[in-house]
Amino acid sequence: MITTDQNVPVANTPETTKRKPSRPSRSYAETVSNAQVMATGLKNNAEVMAKRGLDAEFIAALEADRATAITYNDEQEKLKADLKIKTEDLKTKIASIKAKLSEARKIVKISIPKAQWKEFGIEDRR
Known about the structure:
With 126 residues, this protein is mainly alpha-helical. The chain contains three helices and two strands.
């Protein structure tokens, strides 16, 4: 527990707690690359690895998982790109709606008495 100048205990917070710097997590690309290197090494030393329980079936499963991960990553990247496009479309549509609301609001304020503005969702007093 940490104390302040008046010796009052202060809860441990991220700002007050000292932590060891953590190693950054590996990227997907690094992990997939490491899996390829490992699979190649396992194949090249198959006899020794088989004695320790890492047989051809294990190596094949590692390679299959790696291929599946690559496919999933490619799909994810495409989805991210599609999401960016949809986000831009949404921003454009929202801007259009805001412009139309602003125009309608001005026309309502000019054409309709203040007492009826609430009917249009206008809360202004002026």
